[in-house]
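Quick review question:
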């Protein structure tokens, strides 16, 4: 009599366990995986920004969402394969790569194997993609947790394009963060591409803070700066280059903003302007706004995480690490650090972009150092950025 009872008990225990495993497998392979053909069209979000503008943080906000396959700066592979070229010449290759990535066609990277993939180091910054740190790419993490890039890099392996594509196909949202797109002209056809459901999240930051943050990097951005300026790089005196690069960056942001304003009303809701300063002032509200734009739910554990990471202490030792930093303090650091003469030049170089995006100019060193003076003006009215 005792034996059947034990068997019954065993079955009683095994039932929920099997169900649990099934659910776990389904969950870890993406909550939206469905048979091909019946799969709803994924949402594609391009986080369009420039260097040192908070895009690592915004990328992580999307990347950690369990419905998102995220890739950070895939165009790096194009730019590093053609270091003597220019941003302008590479813009069509850039467009093709971005389109392929959105469609989870990662074979596109085979054209750029020399830069990174050849020696087995994988995609540029792959460890910042939680989807590449969890099944099917790596079995050591699951998407119901926050995955730290440093930990992922230590315990997971970079995966070949085929596995990256398999991971990508399991998600309802594909988000790409890119800083190497200076303008929307080349990308415009992607908005009407029936294979895509492209949304542009345009992330901008006060150019004075960008300039200061770039100056702290000393040389790490030189390859990119060469491509931004193309032939103008050689022609410019070294002391002039930071201003020339910033001019191109500001012009790029202005072009993106203006191009989006000219879209027909049906496309207008596919564009969202986000300012880094607004994000650090009200991280939860602004993250909610960005998630809503992308059609993502702001899960409670993500709310708790966002709250935590935007209230860390100190400036952080690794400039590309967004955790444990007081983002609000960092966003004002330039006001104490930059000499006023440089600030005046930056304002001159970026005048139109600052005026359009809502960054107030300072007219003296006294104004610059006076932190009671709020330099953030209201942004362009939402009616311009979300409705027709
Ligand atoms: C190979 O990978 C390592 C580690 O990521 C990197 O430091 C090195 O520059 C790469 N070498 C080449 C030739 O790409
Ligand atoms: C946020 O920080 C609190 C306090 O340190 C911690 O208990 C909580 O788990 C953190 N939340 C997340 C999602 O990391
Ligand atoms: C700083 O700015 C505030 C607000 O405009 C102003 O009231 C104050 O007088 C300024 N302080 C100095 C030292 O300029």
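Suggested answer, residue by residue:
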């Amino acid at each position: 009599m005792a034996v059947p009872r034990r068997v019954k008990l065993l079955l009683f225990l095994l039932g929920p366990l099997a169900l649990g495993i099934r659910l776990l497998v389904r969950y870890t392979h993406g909550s939206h995986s469905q048979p091909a053909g019946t799969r709803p069209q994924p949402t594609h979000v391009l986080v369009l920004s420039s260097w040192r503008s908070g895009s690592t943080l915004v990328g992580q906000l999307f990347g950690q969402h369990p419905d998102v396959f995220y890739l950070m700066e895939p165009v790096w592979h194009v730019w590093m394969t053609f270091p003597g070229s220019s941003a302008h010449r590479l813009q069509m290759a850039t467009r093709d790569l971005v389109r392929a990535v959105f469609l989870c066609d990662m074979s596109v990277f085979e054209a750029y194997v020399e830069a990174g993939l050849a020696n087995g180091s994988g995609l540029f910054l792959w460890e910042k993609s939680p989807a590449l740190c969890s099944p099917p790419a790596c079995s050591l993490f699951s998407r119901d947790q926050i995955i730290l890039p440093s930990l992922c890099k230590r315990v997971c392996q970079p995966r070949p394009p085929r596995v990256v594509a398999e991971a990508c196909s399991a998600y309802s949202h594909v988000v790409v963060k890119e800083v190497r797109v200076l303008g929307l002209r080349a990308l415009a056809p992607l908005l009407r591409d029936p294979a895509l459901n492209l949304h542009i999240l345009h992330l901008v930051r006060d150019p004075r803070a960008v300039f200061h943050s770039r100056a702290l990097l000393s040389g790490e951005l030189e390859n990119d700066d060469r491509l931004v300026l193309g032939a103008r790089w050689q022609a410019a005196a070294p002391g002039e280059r930071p201003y020339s690069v910033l001019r191109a960056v500001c012009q790029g942001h202005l072009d993106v903003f203006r191009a989006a304003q000219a879209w027909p009303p049906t496309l207008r809701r596919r564009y969202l302007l986000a300012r880094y300063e607004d994000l650090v002032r009200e991280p939860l509200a602004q993250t909610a706004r960005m998630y809503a734009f992308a059609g993502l739910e702001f899960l409670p554990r993500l709310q708790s995480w966002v709250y935590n990471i935007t209230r860390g202490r100190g400036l952080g030792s690794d400039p590309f690490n967004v955790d444990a930093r007081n983002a609000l303090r960092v966003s004002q650091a330039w006001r104490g650090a930059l000499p006023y003469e440089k600030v005046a030049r930056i304002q001159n170089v970026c005048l139109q972009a600052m005026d359009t995006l809502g960054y107030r100019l300072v007219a003296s060193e006294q104004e610059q150092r006076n932190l009671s003076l709020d330099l953030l003006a209201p942004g362009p009215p939402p009616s311009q950025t979300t409705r027709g």
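Why it works: Residues 245 and 269 are 30 Å apart (CA to CA). The longest strand covers residues 198-204.
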